[in-house]
Design goal:
This protein is mostly beta strands. It contains 3 helices and 15 strands.
């Protein structure tokens, strides 16, 4: 009896393993839908300077406390409303930006700013390859330079995650690289690349769940000999299989950076950035 039961269990395990679900992931927008997105980003930055006493005293004399501590929080909401599919396989879309509010605290002094993208509206269409083409940008506070950046960004960056073309099953992983520019006052922005490793942990109830490991490194395509950057972070994401869209994303990324300003001064920065994005599709 025990032998028969063991044999039966082995067969069931074998069948389950063979029937393990595999999916080819691809993010795409669909016609006649509304995508409601909420995004929250926070950061905590601590900056210390290494220099002789005379330089440090000069910095402090300007009312700067050391280490410099900056905290920020940005909240934004967007709605993307798509229309019906036409005979060419294209469909119009309207992007509505809600209020984009940024709060910043520098050494205890707080400021609140509404970004110029608040209230902006972008009209365009998704073509037969699901690529967005901008037609019109409506926004009183959006400059011509901002419009050019928006058009380039929206038309070139179609997906935040580039999934592999092969089918994936639970236990599989893939990597995606994201460029990031870090503004530094009085200096050129620091260009880094974040290697994102996605590990598929579960497929359940029409959704796929990923654990994320992030590794920070300098963008070696640009000359940044005076900079050292490193960091390892974590995150999670949730992909709606029926909607072909990433509906949840969380991330926490600590980063250390050392910048040799000149022969007499080095700046050391510790930064932790967290992001939380939620999308409701109607």
């Amino acid at each position: 009896m025990i032998k028969k039961l063991t044999f039966t269990l082995l067969i069931l395990i074998s069948i389950t393993s063979c029937a393990q679900e595999s999916i080819t992931f691809k993010t795409k927008f669909k016609p006649n839908k509304k995508y409601k997105t909420q995004l929250k980003t926070t950061s905590y930055t601590e900056i210390q300077f290494e220099a002789d006493k005379e330089i440090i005293d000069r910095i402090k004399s300007q009312g700067i406390e050391l280490p410099m501590i900056t905290e920020s929080e940005t909240n934004m909401s967007t709605d993307i409303i798509t229309d019906k599919l036409d005979k060419n396989g294209e469909f119009p879309a309207t992007m509505n930006y809600g209020k984009m509010i940024s709060k910043t605290i520098i050494n205890g002094q707080a400021t609140t700013e509404e970004k110029p993208y608040s209230g902006m509206k972008i009209l365009g269409k998704y073509d037969s390859e699901n690529k967005f083409k901008v037609d019109t940008i409506i926004g009183e506070n959006v400059s011509q330079q901002m419009r050019k950046v928006l058009i380039t960004t929206l038309e070139s960056v179609q997906q935040t995650i580039k999934f592999p073309e092969r089918p994936m099953k639970v236990g599989d992983k893939f990597n995606s690289e994201i460029p990031m520019s870090i503004p530094i006052e009085g200096m050129n922005p620091i260009s880094v690349k974040i290697d994102m490793e996605y590990f598929l942990t579960e497929i359940k109830d029409g959704k796929a769940f990923f654990d994320i490991k992030q590794t920070v490194g300098l963008d070696m395509s640009q000359e940044q000999l005076n900079v050292v950057a490193s960091g390892t972070g974590t995150g999670t994401s949730e992909f709606d299989i029926n909607e072909s869209y990433l509906t949840k994303y969380t991330s926490e990324l600590p980063m250390d950076m050392t910048i040799k300003v000149n022969e007499k001064m080095t700046m050391k920065m510790k930064m932790t950035t967290t992001s939380e994005q939620n999308v409701v599709i109607e």
